[in-house]
Amino acid sequence: MRKWLVFLFLLLIITIGTLGLMKSGSTQGFEVEDNTTISID
């Protein structure tokens, strides 16, 4: 049961993160205007 809780928690974080990236990515980030976002990785 613990594994399922951890799995669901990670899935929730991933979905929230991807949604946030999609929202902010449309205006900044993926456009790569400053190259700062990619250099951090």
Distance between the termini: 34 Å
Sum up the overall morphology in one term: rod-shaped
The main sheet comes to: none
Q: What's the alpha carbon Rg, rounded to whole Å?
A: 14 Å
Number of helices: 2
Strand content: under 5%
Number of strands: 0
Give the ordered list of helices and strands: HH
Q: Enumerate the spans where pLDDT stays under 50 for 5 or more consecutive residues.
A: none
Average predicted local confidence, pLDDT: 72
SS-based class = mainly alpha
Helix content: over 70%
Account of the 3D structure:
- The chain is rod-shaped.
- The chain starts with a helix and ends with a helix.
- Helices cover 71% and strands 0% of the residues.
- The mean pLDDT is 72.
- The chain has 41 residues and is mainly α.
Question: What's a concise summary of this model?
Answer:
The protein has 41 residues and is an all-alpha fold. The chain is built from two helices and no strands. The longest helix has 24 residues, at 2-25.
Secondary structure blueprint with pairings:
Elements: H1 2-25, H2 36-40
What tags apply to this protein structure?
2 helices, 0% strand, mainly alpha, 41 residues
